Each structure stands twice: as structure tokens, then as C-alpha cells.
Amino acid sequence: MAASSRSFVENERADLADLFLEVGPDAPTCCAGWTTAHLAAHLVVRDSRPDAMPGYGVEQLGVAKPLTAWSHRLEDRLRESTPYAQVVDRVRSGPAPWSPLAWPPVSRILNTTEYAIHHEDVRRARSGWEPRALPSAAQDQLWTAAGLFARKAAGRRGLVLRRSDVPGEEKRYGAGGRTVTGEPLELVLWASGRRDLARVTVD
Q1: In sequence order, what are the residues at sequence separation of 6 or more whose Cβ sits closer than 8 angstroms to the Cβ of residue 92?
Q2: Phi-psi region of 188 (alpha: psi -120 to 50; beta: other; left: phi over 0)
Q3: Position 128 in a domain
Q4: C-alpha to C-alpha distance for 18 and 89, rounded to whole angstroms
Q5: Domain of 167, in residue numbers
Q6: CA 121 → CA 7, 50, 71, distances in Å?
Q7: Splitting the chain (203 residues) into consecutive groups of 10 residues, what average pLDDT does each group show?
Q8: pLDDT of res. 63
Q9: Do 113 and 146 share a domain, yes or no?
Q10: What per-residue confidence (pLDDT) applies to 143?
Q11: Does 193 lie in the same domain as 107?
């Protein structure tokens, strides 16, 4: 499929798979303790094992549960039993048609941030990286999806996310608090906890 006919999520998945092969299985990522082999296995398990999803859900809430341990055990099994190139092929092919993650409405909500963030987790772990110039349509999708992380990031203090690429466009979570300004990809990275990586200003 030509890149021009693919969705943003499909482009992110394909480009991340290419980058996985370029850097190899032992390259660092911005996910603490994970190499590219760990991250590739995570994406495949997420796409293909519905029984792993509850563990990922409670992990996002910052709660340590047996469900999370099960999800990571599945990742370890895949990584240890399957050659890296085959795991990357499965990243590239994406979820099976029966998976909810393959349904366009669900994919737009959950996969837009997942693949964009993890793409940057690999890119920004390498020296000499620069922010990407994403099309405005892609930034719009990320802006729509930013709330997945922003509500948690707001906490009790509140939070204002402000787009630097579209004057006057902002979202408020809670009573106010900090104002974080940047392009939507950078705001998503910041709100997801990657504050040392995100190119934003915080007031």
C-alpha cells in the first residue's frame, strides 16, 4: 500500500517497523529498561492478545496488579521464542481483523497515540534526533486523542494544553493550573510522561 493512501496510524506502524529493522533488537528506547526488542514484542502482544489488555489498562493507572505481570510475561515469551525480524513483521501487519484494535473508530482513539509515542520512543533515544514535521491532519488526530493522557496529567492542579501550530486553540482539564504549549505530538509526549523529550513550554 502506498504511503499516501495509508492512514496516519498505518504510516506510523510501517515507519516504526522500518526503524526497528534499521536499529536492530538491542537499540535503546525511551521506555525505561526496554530495548527495541522489548518494545516490538509489546506492540505485537497488545495487537494480538486481548487477555493482555486489562494489564495494560491498570498499568496506565499506575497500579501494580497480577494482570500487568501477565501482560509482560506474554511479551517475554514472544521475545524469547520468536526471531526479532518475525516479531517486527507482525508489528508491521498490525492487529487481526477480528481484534477491536483493527476497527477504525477504536484505532483512531487508541492506536493514534500508541504508535506515534512509541515511534518517538525509538527515534528520540538516538543521538541527533530532530522533531518531525507532521501533516496538519496528523496533528489534528493527535490533538483529538490528547485527552487520553491529559486528564491523568492534570491531576488536582488542573492543566491547559495549548496548540502552538493553531493560534487560539486550547483544552482545559480541571480548574486551570499549568499551561503547556506545543504542537500536538509534543503535547501528547508530555502528557504521557515523557517530559524530558517533549519540545514544549510550560507556564
Answers
A1: 13, 14, 17
A2: alpha
A3: no
A4: 10
A5: 136-202
A6: 20, 24, 20
A7: 74 97 98 96 90 67 66 92 98 91 86 95 96 95 92 91 96 90 98 95 95
A8: 53
A9: no
A10: 96
A11: no
Q: What is the pLDDT of residue 9?
A: 93
Res 96: pLDDT: 87
> Is 172 contained in some domain?
yes
Residue 157 belongs to a domain: yes
pLDDT of residue 64: 57
In a shared domain, residues 114 and 20: yes
SS3 string of 90-109?
Answer: HHHHCCCCCCHHHCHHHHHH
Domain count for the chain, please give it: 2
Alpha carbons 67 and 64: distance in angstroms, whole number: 8
Residue 57: what pLDDT?
Answer: 65
Rounded to the nearest 10 degrees, what angle do helices 184-191 and 147-154 cross at?
50
Judgement on whether residues 182 and 97 belong to the same structural domain of the protein: no
Q: How far is it, in rounded angstroms, from Cα 188 to Cα 145? A: 8
User: What is the C-alpha separation between 111 and 108, in angstroms, rounded?
Assistant: 6
Q: Which of 123, 145, 163 is the last residue of a domain?
A: 123
List Cβ neighbours of 47 (8 Å cut-off, separation of 6 or more).
90, 91, 94, 95, 96, 99, 101
Q: Cβ(148)–Cβ(113) under 8 Å?
A: yes
179 domain residue, yes or no: yes
